[in-house]
């Protein structure tokens, strides 16, 4: 796979949220606003970068039977480091995200990347993969957080969008709103994917026709 | 043990050692900044709940014992060392999702100056209005035991509940009432302790002026 294939795969075609539906716990838990979603994504990026890097470095050294406990130990160490750093230098956001920071350890998307990608690929490819997957994850978090903040409070990144008189649609801030908004977003993603596929098919068909014309002429 | 088993043990051992080292180093680096961040957060909350003051309430903190537990009392003083307010934290154990910590600030006459919620796990969008709704928080200002019905309006009291959230404000109101009772029980003790503090020569800080000028 080329670097750009790895990236588009991690960011879109194999997106942790849109395609695999992994990491639902932080996704639904913290996305009451776009900003919360963004910082959760940033924390996940640091953890995934660290774990993919280290897992890729030690691939071949770790015996197969104990690879899962080893990976989990590595991931848990990075999560704790990120948690302590946020507590020290981003105290307010740490208080908001609270419990969801330690829960990054059990985000299947991260163990999934260690197992499915970093343990089988070079260090550089693993780093690209980590960047792509967490960019895709952050994109999903900010999108869902933005939708919920916009409809729930009439704001985006804390700035008023619909004005003072907007009647807050509380449902979008509450957990059911997360599921409903995610459902619509997934429907939109499927629509985009279908059109992408249709376009690719059409191009392939045109290529076949063009070839046929060339042969006959 | 065969060779494969030994390899497994060694691999896990090395991973664990490296992880522990990394965590220990991070702890060393972040311990000070975390303490400082917590101090700053408390400083901000204290300056919101206490009337105007020129001392550092965290430096002049008193530990007052009550029913076996220790309450940290933060006194606010003006330039002359005169008491302008008192603050401490109460915990409402009966929030909708775990405990709610509330910093309560008092004027010297025992009326509430302001309150702030410092930690909670209430539902975002429902219960977390106790943090954001400044009108609701302002409703506590000037209250004391005699002229206030310390219940939510649903139960015939003086405090609004929120749409879809009654348990949270009920817990807060109950805890703040306990805080007012603590003031009434303990303020003689606290005043005496403060007098002792003022009588002592200030301890090695650059704020020598407090206790002496009086």
Q: For the CA atoms, what is the radius of gyration of chain A?
A: 21 Å
Round the mean pLDDT of chain B to the nearest integer and report it.
Answer: 84
Would you tell me the structural class of the helices and strands of chain A? mainly alpha
Shape of chain B: extended
Which strands sit side by side, in order, in the main sheet of chain B?
1-2-3-4-5
Strand order of the largest sheet of chain A: 1-2
Percent of residues in helices of chain B comes to: 40-55%
State which percent range the strand residues of chain A make up: under 5%
Main beta-sheet annotation of chain B:
5 strands, antiparallel
Give the helices and strands of chain A as they follow along the chain.
Answer: HHHHHHHEEHH
Characterize the main sheet of chain A: 2 strands, antiparallel
Distance between the termini of chain A: 37 Å
The radius of gyration of chain B is: 23 Å
Instruction: State the shape of chain A.
Output: flat
Kindly report the average pLDDT value of chain A.
Answer: 89
Please mark out the parts of chain B with pLDDT under 50 across 5 or more consecutive residues, or reply none.
204-214
Strand content of chain B: 15-25%
How many β-strands of chain B, per DSSP? 5
Subunit organisation of the chains: heterodimer
Which pair of chains forms the biggest interface, and how many residues does each contribute? A-B, 29 and 28 residues
**What helical percentage do the residues of chain A reach?**
over 70%
């Amino acid at each position: 796979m080329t670097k750009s294939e790895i990236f588009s795969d991690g960011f879109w075609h194999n997106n942790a949220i849109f395609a695999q539906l992994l990491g639902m716990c932080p996704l639904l838990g913290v996305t009451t606003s776009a900003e919360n979603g963004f910082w959760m994504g940033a924390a996940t990026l640091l953890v995934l970068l660290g774990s993919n890097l280290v897992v890729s470095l030690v691939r071949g050294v770790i015996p197969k039977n104990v690879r899962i406990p080893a990976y989990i130990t590595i991931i848990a160490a990075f999560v704790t480091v990120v948690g302590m750093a946020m507590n020290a230098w981003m105290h307010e956001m740490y208080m908001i995200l609270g419990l969801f920071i330690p829960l990054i350890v059990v985000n299947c998307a991260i163990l999934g990347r260690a197992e499915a990608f970093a343990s089988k690929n070079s260090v550089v490819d693993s780093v690209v993969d980590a960047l792509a997957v967490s960019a895709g994850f952050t994109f999903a978090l900010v999108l869902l957080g933005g939708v919920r903040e916009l409809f729930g409070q009439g704001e985006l990144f804390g700035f008023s969008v619909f004005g003072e008189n907007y009647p807050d649609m509380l449902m979008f801030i509450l957990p059911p709103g997360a599921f409903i908004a995610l459902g619509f977003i997934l429907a939109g993603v499927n629509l985009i994917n279908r059109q992408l596929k249709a376009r690719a098919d059409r191009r392939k068909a045109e290529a076949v026709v063009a070839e046929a014309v060339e042969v006959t002429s | 043990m065969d060779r494969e088993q030994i390899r497994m043990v060694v691999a896990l051992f090395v991973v664990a050692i490296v992880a522990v080292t990394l965590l220990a180093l991070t702890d060393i680096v972040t311990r000070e900044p975390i303490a400082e961040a917590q101090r700053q957060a408390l400083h901000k909350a204290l300056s919101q709940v206490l009337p105007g003051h020129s001392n550092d309430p965290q430096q002049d903190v008193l530990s007052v014992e009550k029913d076996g537990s220790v309450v940290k009392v933060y006194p606010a003083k003006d330039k002359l060392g005169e008491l302008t307010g008192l603050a401490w934290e109460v915990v409402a154990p009966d929030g909708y999702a775990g405990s709610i910590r509330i910093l309560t600030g008092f004027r010297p006459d025992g009326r509430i100056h302001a309150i702030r919620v410092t930690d909670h796990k209430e539902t975002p969008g429902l219960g977390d209005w106790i943090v954001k709704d400044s009108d609701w928080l302002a409703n506590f200002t000037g209250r004391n035991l005699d002229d206030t019905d310390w219940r939510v309006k649903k139960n015939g009291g003086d405090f609004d509940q929120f749409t879809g959230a009654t348990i949270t404000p009920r817990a807060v109101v109950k805890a703040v009432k306990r805080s007012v009772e603590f003031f009434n029980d303990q303020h003689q003790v606290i005043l005496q302790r403060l007098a002792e503090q003022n009588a002592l020569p200030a301890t090695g800080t650059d704020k020598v002026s407090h206790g002496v000028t009086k």
